[in-house]
Amino acid sequence: MTKTSALKLVNGLLYVVSTCLFCSGLVLEYRLEGRGLRGAQLLMMTKHTWTEVHFILGLSTATLVVAHLWLNWGWIVKVATSGARSRLIGTVGFAVFAIGIALLAPITLPDDQQPQESGRGQWQWWR
Fold first, then answer.
1. Quick one: 36 exposed, middle or buried, by C-beta within 10 A (0-12, 13-18, 19+)?
2. Handedness of CA 19, 25, 29, 30 (dihedral sign)
3. Cα(64)–Cα(61) distance, rounded to whole angstroms?
4. Is the pTM of this model over 0.85?
5. Which of 33, 67, 71, 91 is found 20 to 30 A from 2 (Cα to Cα)?
6. Cβ(113)–Cβ(119) under 8 Å?
7. Contact between residue 88 and residue 80 where contact means Cβ atoms under 8 Å apart
8. d(C-alpha 53, C-alpha 45), whole Å
9. What are the 10-residue block averages of pLDDT along the chain, 127 residues in total?
10. Measured between alpha carbons, how far apart are the two ends of the chain, in Å?
11. Which of 59, 46, 53, 45 is nearest to 24 (CA)?
């Protein structure tokens, strides 16, 4: 398989998979969200199944992005060594910053879900 045909395949798959990822996110956020929808199904799949599909599509998209970058690495190096180096540094810096925030940002709980100390020195996670 030539590099051109591999790029066409990866780009086509990336388009289809990322579009499905976007659509599954819309389903989770707007169609299967809310009280009173417990056990509801859309296209014969529950919210739990949609969440699993969304996760698998996310991993597939990430894998295809890595493949896309690998196949275009020569162009990336060419741009980096040309006069547009500051643009590349800014783009890579933003990507590193965004990934760092996603992985390192603290998770907070609302006041009504804070752990409560029980009488025996153990934490009680429910009220």
1. exposed
2. positive
3. 5
4. no
5. 91
6. no
7. yes
8. 10
9. 94 97 92 76 89 96 96 85 74 87 79 61 53
10. 60
11. 53
